[in-house]
Structures are given as structure tokens and as C-alpha cells.
Amino acid sequence: MLATAIFAGGCFWCMVKPFDEQPGIKSVVAGYTGGTTVNPTYEQVASHTTGHTEAVKITFDPNVISYAQLVEIYWHQTDPTDAAGQFQDRGDSYRPVIFVNGPEQRQVAESSRDALIASGRFNDPIVTQIEDVKPFYPAEAVHQDFYRQNPFRFQIEEMGGRAQFIKQRWQ
């Protein structure tokens, strides 16, 4: 039996690879969620008028990798103190959100967030939102597996502050 998890952590191009490389992951789809426009395009979401945020939908085997492990991977890809976007990507379409699918995922996400707060790793408040799952719309094909299809451009995106932040805060 497979399960799904949805995370928003800035540019979806940069959020696919960390999950895609894990055992038990069946697929990682870049897309849009959290807004009101049905089946939005990249251009619509980038206009900051849809309410959507770029996100990844992960289909996984919970017998191989747990939702709690996915949440931990998520934290290590984001700046949980920045509600206005992530790294060089600014605006509501890049806000950090854990979209939970039911009370079990909510409990795991909230406990993980509370443990992160208690750890003292960050001086600023943890502002990542935990919200109920909303309809998820896959992004256009050009945005799928971006790190594989466009490795040079992906490397440039990673140099926008994410890789340095991860190295300083998590390694």
C-alpha cells in the first residue's frame, strides 16, 4: 500500500532531488497546491495571483520509508524561519508548507516541528505552516525531473543560497 506526502519548500525544481534519491520513493511530482485556481499554469502561479505554492507530491512505500523520515528530509531542504519564500525565490508561491493528509500526518508534522523548535537550532521562530492537503495539480512536463533534464540550470538554482544554507545549518 502506497501513501503520499506533499511539501512546499520554495522552487519545486530544488525539492525533487532530495526525495527522489531515497529508497521507498515511487515518484516525486512537481506541481501546484494551496490556491484557488483549477489546473493552473506555471505562468499563473508565478504571477502570485492564484494562491498556489510550488510543491512536490511524493508517493512512497511506508514499509520502506516513513512519513516521519520524509518530514525530516523536508526540514533539511528549507529555511523554516522564512515565511516570505525560500532563498532566492520570493513570494507566496514559494512559502514553506507541510500539507498533511489526515490526523496522523498532522501529528507527525506538528511533533517534528515542535522538536525542531525545542532543539534551539534556529534563533528565529519556525514559521513553516502545516495545512490540510488541498487539490494538487502536476506542473507542466518541462518542470518534471528538472535536475536530470537541466543539470546546469539546476546547479545555478542550487547556488541561490539553498546549498550553502543546508551546509551551514544541517551538516
TrEMBL record:
Keywords associated with the record: Oxidoreductase
Active site: 11
SUPFAM superfamilies attached to this UniProt entry: Peptide methionine sulfoxide reductase
GO MF, one annotated term: peptide-methionine (S)-S-oxide reductase activity
Keyword Membrane: no
Keyword Secreted: no
Domain called Peptide methionine sulphoxide reductase MsrA: residue spans: 4-154
InterPro entries linked: Met_Sox_Rdtase_MsrA_dom (IPR002569), Met_Sox_Rdtase_MsrA_sf (IPR036509)
Enzyme Commission code(s) on record: 1.8.4.11
Enzymatic class: oxidoreductase
Catalyzed chemical reaction(s): [thioredoxin]-disulfide + L-methionine + H2O = L-methionine (S)-S-oxide + [thioredoxin]-dithiol; L-methionyl-[protein] + [thioredoxin]-disulfide + H2O = L-methionyl-(S)-S-oxide-[protein] + [thioredoxin]-dithiol
Job of this protein: Has an important function as a repair enzyme for proteins that have been inactivated by oxidation. Catalyzes the reversible oxidation-reduction of methionine sulfoxide in proteins to methionine.
Family per record: Belongs to the MsrA Met sulfoxide reductase family.
Protein name stated in the entry: Peptide methionine sulfoxide reductase MsrA
UniProt organism field: Lactiplantibacillus paraplantarum
